[in-house]
Amino acid sequence: xxxxxxxxxxxxxxxxxxxxxxxxxxxxxxxxxxxxxxxxxxxxxxxxxxxxxxxxxxxxxxxxxxxxxxxxxxxxxxxxxxxxxxxxxxxxxxxxxxxxxxxxxxxxxxxxxxxxxxxxxxxxxxxxxxxxxxxxxxxxxxxxxxxxxxxxxxxxxxxxxxxxxxxxxxxxxxxxxxxxxxxxxxxxxxxxxxxxxxxxxxxxxxxxxxxxxxxxxxxxxxxxxxxxxxxxxxxxxxxxxxxxxxxxxxxxxxxxxxxxxxxxxxxxxxxxxxxxxxxxxxxxxxxxxxxxxxxxxxxxxxxxxxxxxxxxxxxxxxxxxxxxxxxxxxxxxxxxxxxxxxxxxxxxxxxxxxxxxxxxxxxxxxxxxxxxxxxxxxxxxxxxxxxxxxxxxxxxxxxxxxxxxxxxxxxxxxxxxxxxxxxxxxxxxxxxxxx
Length: 435
Hints:
Blueprint: H1 6-19, E1 26-30, E2 33-37, H2 39-45, H3 47-54, E3 64-66, H4 72-84, H5 94-103, H6 107-120, H7 127-137, H8 140-152, H9 154-157, H10 168-175, H11 185-198, H12 200-203, H13 207-211, H14 221-231, H15 248-251, E4 257-260, E5 270-275, E6 280-285, E7 290-291, E8 294-297, E9 303-306, E10 309-310, E11 328-332, E12 337-340, E13 352-356, E14 359-363, E15 372-376, E16 381-385, E17 404-409, E18 412-417, E19 420-425, E20 430-433
Parallel strand pairs: 1-3
Antiparallel strand pairs: 1-2, 4-5, 5-6, 7-10, 8-9, 9-11, 11-12, 13-14, 14-15, 15-16, 17-18, 18-19, 19-20
Helix pairs in contact: 2-3, 4-5, 5-6, 7-8
């Protein structure tokens, strides 16, 4: 007979002993903070500590051991995992935890989950930092993920301060990519100029090397003259890439897409899309088993998906999310995948989504929810806005459906339903009933 509760009880009691510093046989010193712990626990989860305590090193007999190149916050996180199996850390500590997990060889779970978090939370402000960090670590999958993200947002990423911090080899690696979302080679040339001008005296000498990543076939004669002029002081001959492959951004076309989502759960992983201008059907991968969500396209050509419910086999909602999901996704056009973004503040089913002045507004849902919130894509952050101060009717259908629609006009959002029309002024941050 096996007591299934025993492991949880055992580790809970062991963790309590650690917190009270009872029966511990070691103190780790990290950045001036002391962490009482048990050698056996550390050795069981880390080859680093197992080797330290069993291979005849001096630390095997020391009561206090100093750990370098690890932050105290990261050590607290790793010890918490070692004693409980639960990984909890603040978003701004993920990189430190990842570095510590690699150093201390806690890679089976901690490092992998930290890497997954960084991959899922790539944005324009951090993608080049992640590329530089993972290049230092030698993490090839995360390097490629950050490289793909940079390529997919290239025209915006090059405007970020962190782009200017790239090393020459990393800059060349980025500029060599076929999947850069740049509508002309001149955009890539200008990005190279911006990188050089940031430290011109130091970097101008690298122009000949950078030109090997620029595709002469697609550079205008005026831009070639500008390149040659910049290079005169280096006394070097410019040699360009002879590739005749267009970057992805040069071949993209504008499309009007209607998303045709089936109510059946027989094919839950994709949805059919219809290009209205060409009369062509496509398939789009979707988050697994998610229904009753809302999608929106922005003026910048981005697609976002919000809320919904997870449908189990047989077409029933899961008990844990009957009030809807807080999930929010952005579509990656290159990979045909939905990438998680910051969760919404409220749970929503069939909410209304509106784009206005670069923000996305999520309003209400298919129930009587009157709350609203605003998403800032540049910060990957939601904030609450005032609740609609009027009662909202609920949908009568079995599956939730939106009982009103929302549109943007000038600096206001108008919400229309059976009970009337309501206006939210972004300038005044107030709702009023207009009809």
